[in-house]
Amino acid sequence: MPAVRRPRDLVYSALKRRIVLNEIAPGDALTELGLARELGCSQGTVREALLRLQEDGLVVRDGHRGTTVTELDPDAAIEILELRKRLETRGALRAVGAYDDRARAELDAIRKAMPKAAQRGDEYGLIELDMRFHATIFRLASPSVLEQILIRCMLHSHRQKLWAPGHRRTLAKTADRHAPLMAALEARDGPRLAREIEHHLDTIVDVEKPAARRGRAA
Fold this sequence. Notes:
This protein is mostly helical. The chain has a 3-stranded antiparallel sheet. A hairpin with a 3-residue loop joins β2 and β3. α2 packs across α3, α4 crosses α7 and α9 packs antiparallel against α10.
């Protein structure tokens, strides 16, 4: 029987989803009273959710100005992606030594769920699976204290990707992008896995070339 989720967890998950998908835009103001009315819960429940979102770096809380969704800054996005790349590529070199049947089963289960999420058109579900996939590899041999930093970087990478003008990769193609990482793990090749992760992150945004756009519009 599935566990019953507490209201504060449901509110937190709902708001995080909307922020990551940019349904609540960068810079938007959020009020506890307004969200409580909209979501049918108490202000205390909303307050707890906003505090967790602040820990994720998705909102900024100010005693005088209230709560706003964090802005998306292209320069900051580059720094965040570089930090994420550094964390994951270094972790990859250690992960291959800890890769075992349990990790293979967990990663295989995530990969099998990805095309199903894509077929449903569940963009956020695919984002969550992607984050689980990368975190599972990272967790194999990296200090747990760094995992929350990586998760925060991943959240912002996905927000920026969806905000990027011209990003066009289909969900089905996104779901297929993890096969090279699995192949490197299966080969127990740390440098290869690091290279595959670096390429994976360098191509996180797929922007259509202007000539291709003109041709399709015509």
